[in-house]
Amino acid sequence: MQGDDSDRPQIAAFPPLIFAGALGLGGLLDVLIPIRFTPRAYSAPFGLFFIGCGLGFAGLALWEMFRSKTPVDPRRPTSSLVTTGVFKVSRNPIYLGMVLFCLGVSFLIHSLWFMALAAALAAVLQKGVILPEESYLERKFGNPYREYKANVRRWL
After folding, report:
1. What distance lies between CA 55 and its chain's CA centroid?
2. DSSP characters over 109-148
3. Biggest distance spanned by C-alpha atoms of the chain
4. Which residues of the chain are under the pLDDT cut of 70?
5. Of 94, 105, 116, 137, which one has the fewest beta carbons inside 10 Å?
6. What is the residue extent of each domain of the chain?
7. Residues 6+ apart with CB under 8 A from 145
8. DSSP assignment, residue 68?
9. Rounded Cα–Cα distance for residues 93 and 41 (Å)
10. Per the UniProt record, which residue ranges are transmembrane (predicted)?
11. Residue 42: per-residue pLDDT
């Protein structure tokens, strides 16, 4: 990647790859060692609800970032601090969307593996992506970001 490495967050890995890895691992574990939970009657409605919420959060966040003309890819320098739309509710709506989607899959296919991986995904995103992004945004935007951080929750 070209450019100044100091003008981008030093994330552990590209978030969509972390998300895809969690989904892939969940699918593999579910096939090899299926562990089921909850009555099936409740699985589909909860699953579809969480998947819908996940897609909604991520989609609305992408829209706000495109409107603000700031890169979605966290490996690129951020051009503006986005605090509008869904970013008024969560500082990390795309990552929240990923976790909710994974949780929704757990309910939809009745798999405890995906539920465990949703929790692991949240932990990996927080440690390897969100914390480095927050440090970067604080350095880049200073007080406006600190105020935003004080007023808006990280997840929900």
Report:
1. 11
2. TT-HHHHHHHHHHHHHHIIIIIHHHHHHHHHHH-HHHHHH
3. 53
4. 1-5, 38
5. 116
6. 46-147
7. 81, 137, 138
8. T
9. 29
10. 12-33, 45-66, 94-125
11. 79
